[in-house]
């Protein structure tokens, strides 16, 4: 059994939370090591305020919050507000060497969080190397005063941490689960035995109700899910299981299942043993996209769909797993190589100062502005066998400059280089409309005819299907922002 593979966090009586009201707009995050014991193993981990997961931030739509971050750890750190658009204020969004330099050990930096259109469940996390594994927490954004949820008010919203938690429920009541996938890479099937779940929001935006036996949640995504406690009083497993196309025998991924228990209140004899919920096969790619395929925005008067209908800028980006040669074939990748990732065959190289600062002060030599609009090399991207010479990308610090208020369509095309896998993609500073997706190679003449331009879901994190593609649209109306983060988010 695996503990803390997926963390599900919500808001009722959560002692680690930080509430932001009109009189409380300044918070303190102290980044420091703390000793934690999990699965009978004790170790020091990096935390915020000594908590793992870190404190939950509660706010109302449209609030502005200042977070004073003190780095008392041993390494550089930044904090990113995942899914927060930060309109016209990218300076404290958090991506290391993109919008800000890291906070050095012993230093303090005040970060402003500007909430605008977001409403629902978001999250925050470290954005330096692998520190996100333990430095993260939830952001819960409630409707403004005088407004309400676009679905029946749940009886409770409950904090859940899988692995050590029992969710106690009353028969006949409805619970709002705010689900965050804080895993570094794993896409997860999530389900509750003998219960259906109804998705009502994702990435801080509401959706039309979508009822499913399971959901697939990709790294960095959030889901708002209604759970009706409508089964016979008993104990039921809730569980999460990795989706992966990697062979089980080669230990490329963790194939364990993380569990917690939904426990009905009352007097009865619990069933024994408990049964796990039914999951698709771990490598069922068709099952992995079913929730993504069913999501629709509300597209009503209070939550309009403003999807660009005639984009002025169209881009096609290939996303790939690549490899670099290592001295004496000494790395852990195939044939002693080192794994990397690329977009349009360019693997990002971090600069020594942040790109936004270089742009603002016109500092030359930090980055280039020639990021290609289309793949520099066109081939059968999803073929079973591809030439080995395609596996090694170029290295560069390149950006794509967009005109202010231009409307943009980006098609992300997955490739089968090294490993044809799914590719989580997150856009900083924006939410975007997912207007289309498919398997195989994108066809610019045929596939746009199937776009959903009426009620596509509004998201900030999506996943390119294994050997497939997705198409997104947005308006470039937030100057200074727009960095896509691929794979590690």
TrEMBL record:
One of its GO terms (biological process) is lignin catabolic process. InterPro entries: Cu-oxidase-like_N, Cu-oxidase_2nd, Cu-oxidase_C, Cu-oxidase_fam, Cupredoxin, CuRO_1_LCC, CuRO_2_LCC. Residues 31-145, 163-266, 376-481 form the Plastocyanin-like domain. Its main location: secreted. Keywords: Apoplast, Copper, Glycoprotein, Lignin degradation, Metal-binding, Oxidoreductase, Repeat, Secreted, Signal. It catalyses: 4 hydroquinone + O2 = 4 benzosemiquinone + 2 H2O. Residues 1-20 form the signal peptide. One of its GO terms (cellular component) is apoplast. This is laccase. It comes from Vitis vinifera (Grape). The lineage of its organism: Eukaryota, Viridiplantae, Streptophyta, Embryophyta, Tracheophyta.
């Amino acid at each position: 059994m695996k503990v803390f593979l997926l963390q599900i966090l919500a808001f009722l009586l959560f002692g680690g939370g930080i509430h932001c009201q009109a009189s409380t707009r300044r918070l303190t995050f102290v980044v420091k090591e703390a000793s934690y014991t999990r699965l009978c193993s004790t170790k020091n981990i990096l935390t915020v305020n000594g908590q793992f997961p870190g404190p939950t931030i509660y706010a109302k739509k449209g609030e502005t919050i200042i977070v004073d971050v003190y780095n008392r750890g041993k390494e550089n750190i930044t904090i990113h507000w995942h899914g927060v658009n930060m309109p016209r204020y990218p300076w404290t969004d958090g991506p290391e060497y993109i919008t800000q330099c890291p906070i050095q050990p012993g230093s303090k930096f005040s970060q402003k969080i500007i909430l605008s259109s977001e409403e629902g469940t978001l999250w925050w996390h470290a954005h330096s190397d692998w520190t996100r594994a333990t430095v993260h927490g939830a952001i819960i954004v409630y409707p403004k005063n005088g407004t309400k949820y676009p679905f029946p008010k749940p009886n409770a919203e409950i904090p859940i941490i899988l692995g050590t938690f029992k969710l106690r429920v009353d028969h006949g009541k409805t619970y709002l689960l705010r689900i965050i996938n804080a895993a570094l890479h794993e896409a997860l099937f999530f389900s509750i035995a003998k219960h259906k779940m109804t998705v009502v929001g994702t990435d801080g935006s509401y959706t039309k109700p979508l009822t499913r036996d399971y959901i697939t949640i990709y790294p960095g995504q959030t889901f708002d899910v209604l759970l009706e406690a409508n089964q016979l009083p008993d104990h039921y497993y809730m569980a999460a299981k990795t989706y992966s196309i990697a062979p089980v025998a080669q230990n490329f991924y963790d194939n364990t299942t993380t569990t917690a228990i939904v426990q009905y209140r009352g007097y009865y004899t619990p069933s024994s043993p408990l049964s796990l919920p039914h999951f698709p096969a771990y490598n069922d790619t068709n099952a992995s996209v079913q929730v993504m395929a069913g999501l629709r925005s509300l597209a009503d008067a209070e939550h309009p769909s403003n999807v660009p209908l005639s984009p002025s800028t169209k881009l096609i980006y290939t996303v790939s797993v690549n490899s670099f040669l290592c001295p004496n074939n000494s790395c852990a990748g195939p044939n002693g190589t080192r794994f990397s990732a690329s977009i349009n065959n360019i693997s990002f190289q971090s600069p020594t100062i942040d790109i936004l600062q270089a742009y603002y002060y016109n500092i030359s030599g930090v980055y280039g502005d020639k990021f290609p609009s289309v793949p520099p090399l066109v081939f059968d991207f999803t073929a079973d066998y591809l030439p080995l010479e395609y596996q090694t990308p170029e290295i560069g610090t390149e950006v794509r400059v967009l005109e202010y208020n231009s409307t943009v369509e980006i098609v992300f095309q997955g490739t089968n280089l090294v490993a044809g896998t799914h590719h989580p993609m997150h856009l900083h500073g924006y939410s975007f409309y997912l207007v289309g997706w498919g398997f195989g190679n994108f066809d610019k003449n045929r596939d746009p005819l199937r776009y959903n331009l009426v009620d596509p879901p509004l998201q900030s994190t999506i996943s390119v299907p294994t050997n497939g593609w997705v198409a997104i649209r947005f308006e470039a109306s937030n100057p200074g922002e727009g960095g896509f983060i691929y794979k590690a988010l």
